[in-house]
Amino acid sequence: MMKKIGIVLISLMMALPLFAQKKELQKGIIFEEGTLAQALAKAKNNKKGPKLVFVDCYTEWCGPCKAIAKDVFPLEHVGKFFNANFVNMKIDMEKGEGVEIGKKYGIRAYPTFLILDGDGNEINRVIGGGQADRFIERVKKAMDPSTNPDVLKERYLTTKSSPDAIAYLEALNSIYQEDKAISFLEEIFPTLNPRVKYSDKIWPYLSKAIGNPNSTLFTQLLEEKSIADNSLNKVIVDEAICSGIKNMIISYLAGRANNLDKSTLLKRVEYLNLLSSNDAAAPFLSQVAKLYSEGDIEAIGKMLNANNLMRLSEADRSLCERAVMSIKDFPKEKMIEYFNEKLKFFNYQTESITRNIKRLSE
Question: What is the Cα Rg of the chain in Å?
Answer without folding.
Answer: 28
